[in-house]
Specification:
By secondary structure, the protein is α/β, with parallel strands linked by helices. The protein folds into 4 domains: 111 residues, no CATH class; 45 residues; 180 residues, Rossmann fold, CATH 3.40.50; 31 residues. The protein has 15 helices and 15 strands. The strands form 5 sheets. It has a 6-stranded parallel β-sheet with strand order 10-9-8-11-12-13, sandwiched between helices. A 3-stranded parallel β-sheet has the order 6-5-7. A two-stranded antiparallel ribbon has the order 1-3. It is globular, with a radius of gyration of 26 Å. It starts with 27 loop residues before the first strand and ends in a 6-residue tail after the last helix.
C-alpha cells in the first residue's frame, strides 16, 4: 500500500490524519484481511487509488453489503468476493479523478469501467487506418499498439483489428434501460446548458434580422471530400446542391448558410463564394458560435454534418440529405433514408448509444478511462489541463499562419478549393 497519496484526506473527510495521532477511542480494530481479486488494478502503468484499508477505521458510516452487492452484480454479473464484503467496515472510497469521497457503488462502477476497458484492450491485435498524428493518443488510451499499414498486415496478427469508422460493420442494436435513458437525458441537458459543440469556437454571433412569418432555417456546409460525404451522401453531394435542395424544400423560409470552419480557413474542399451562396441563401454567416445560432433556428438542413446531431440535442428539427449516424431512427426528416435502418428511437436512446455506449473516453489529467460526465467536468476547468508540448504548440502556430495565407490567396484568386 502506498503511504503518500495526494488526495488521502478524501478517503477520511470525517477524521484528521496527522503524524503521531493517537488511535481514536471508538475506532474499529482491523482484523487480519487479505486483498483479493477485487483490489484496484493498475491501468497500463497508471495507479490511482479508489479504495483504502485503514490501519484502524476512523469513525464513519461504513459501506454496507447491500450497497455493494447490486452494484457488483450489475457490473460483473456475479456476487462480490467474500473477502471484499469482510473488508467493507474498514474500507473507505475516494474518487480517483478528484479529491472527494465517493460511495462504494460509485467505486465499483469505476473499477468495472477500468476492468472492462482493459479486457477489451487485450483483445486488440492491430489498428488500421489511424492517421499518424492520432497514434500517440491511441497508444495512451489503448496501451502498446501495432499500427498496420494495410488490411493484410492487420489480419496477419492475432487478435481483433480496430479500424477507423468507415471500415466498421453495422453494430447490433441495443436495448436501452430506463436508468440509461435517464442518464442520457441528464448528459444531454449538461451539454446544451454548457453550450458545448464540436468546434467550440467562441466567436461573437452577429445579430440576425427579424423574419416575421418566415421560418429560420440553418444550412450547414461541409467538407466535400470528407469520408462522411464520400460514404454517406446521396444525390446531394456538394454545398451548392445542399443550398439548392434546402431552398426547393423551404421556398418561403429565411435561409442562413454557414460554411464549414475548415473550408472557410482554406484547408479543405467545399468553398462556396458568397455570391453563389446568395443565389439561394438570404444570409451567409462565415463565423459565430453555432450553439447560440441553433438556439435561434426553427430547423436545420445538412447532408451528414455533426451539426445535425447538435441540433437534435437542442430540440431543433433536422432535415437530412444523406445518411449520417443520427438519421433513419425517426428523429429526422430523411430525404435519403438509410436502407439498413428502420427502428424508431427516442432522442435519449440515440444520445445513450452515441455518447455513452459507443465512445471511449480518457481523462486528460490522469489518462485513465473515464465517463462522459467526468469529461464535461474537465471541459469546465481548462486551467487544470496539462500544457501542450512545444512541438504541438509550434505546429498550431504554423497551422494558423498557413490558414491566414490560404484565405488571403483565395481572396485574390490565387487559391480555391
Amino acid at each position: 500500500m502506498q503511504r503518500e497519496w495526494p488526495h488521502l484526506p478524501a478517503f477520511f473527510p470525517d477524521c484528521r490524519l496527522e503524524a503521531g495521532a493517537s488511535r481514536p477511542a471508538d475506532a474499529l480494530t482491523l482484523p487480519p484481511l487479505q486483498e483479493g481479486d477485487w483490489a484496484t488494478p493498475a491501468f497500463h502503468a497508471i495507479r490511482r487509488p479508489v479504495a483504502v484499508l485503514a490501519p484502524f477505521a476512523p469513525p464513519s458510516r461504513p459501506a454496507l453489503p447491500q450497497e455493494v452487492l447490486p452494484a457488483w452484480r450489475e457490473a460483473f454479473g456475479e456476487d462480490p468476493p467474500a473477502a471484499l464484503l469482510d473488508a467493507l467496515p474498514y474500507t473507505r472510497f475516494a474518487c480517483p479523478f478528484s479529491p472527494r469521497p465517493i460511495s462504494a457503488g460509485a467505486a465499483v462502477a469505476i473499477l468495472a469501467l477500468w476492468r472492462r476497458t482493459a479486457a477489451q484492450n487485450c483483445q486488440i491485435g492491430s489498428f488500421l487506418g489511424m492517421a499518424g498524428w492520432k497514434q500517440a493518443a491511441i497508444t495512451s488510451a489503448f496501451g502498446p499498439a501495432h499500427f498496420a499499414k494495410n488490411p493484410a498486415a492487420a489480419l496477419a496478427r492475432p487478435g481483433k483489428v480496430l479500424a477507423w469508422a468507415s471500415s466498421l460493420t453495422p453494430a447490433t442494436e441495443t436495448d436501452f434501460s430506463p436508468a440509461l435513458l435517464a442518464r442520457a437525458a441528464a448528459l444531454r441537458a449538461r451539454i446544451t446548458a454548457a453550450n458545448i459543440t464540436k468546434y467550440n469556437l467562441a466567436e461573437p454571433l452577429p445579430p440576425l434580422p427579424a423574419t416575421p412569418g418566415r421560418r429560420r432555417i440553418l444550412v450547414v456546409g461541409q467538407v466535400e471530400d470528407d469520408a462522411s460525404i464520400r460514404h454517406g451522401a446521396g444525390r446531394v453531394r456538394s454545398n451548392a446542391q445542399l443550398l439548392a435542395a434546402a431552398r426547393a424544400a423551404e421556398p418561403q423560409a429565411f435561409l442562413i448558410y454557414k460554411p464549414h470552419p475548415d473550408v472557410q480557413t482554406g484547408y479543405r474542399r467545399g468553398y462556396l463564394p458568397t455570391r453563389e451562396a446568395r443565389r439561394h441563401a438570404d444570409m451567409v454567416l462565415t463565423s459565430g458560435d453555432i450553439g447560440r445560432l441553433l438556439a435561434q433556428m426553427d430547423a436545420l438542413h445538412s447532408i451528414t454534418s455533426l451539426a445535425g446531431f447538435e441540433a437534435l440535442l437542442r430540440g431543433v428539427a433536422v432535415t437530412s440529405w444523406g445518411a449520417p449516424f443520427y438519421a433513419g431512427w425517426g428523429l429526422t426528416d430523411d430525404r435519403e433514408p438509410p436502407p439498413r435502418r428502420g427502428r424508431r428511437l427516442c432522442l435519449d436512446a440515440l444520445v445513450a448509444a452515441c455518447l455513452i455506449l459507443y465512445p471511449r473516453y480518457q481523462d486528460p489529467l490522469t489518462l485513465l478511462p473515464c465517463t462522459p460526465e467526468l469529461l464535461l467536468d474537465r471541459l469546465a476547468e481548462p486551467a487544470r489541463w496539462p500544457p501542450l508540448p512545444p512541438a504541438r504548440r509550434a505546429y498550431l502556430a504554423w497551422w494558423r499562419l498557413q490558414g491566414r495565407w490560404l484565405k488571403c490567396a483565395r481572396a485574390t484568386g490565387l487559391w480555391r478549393r
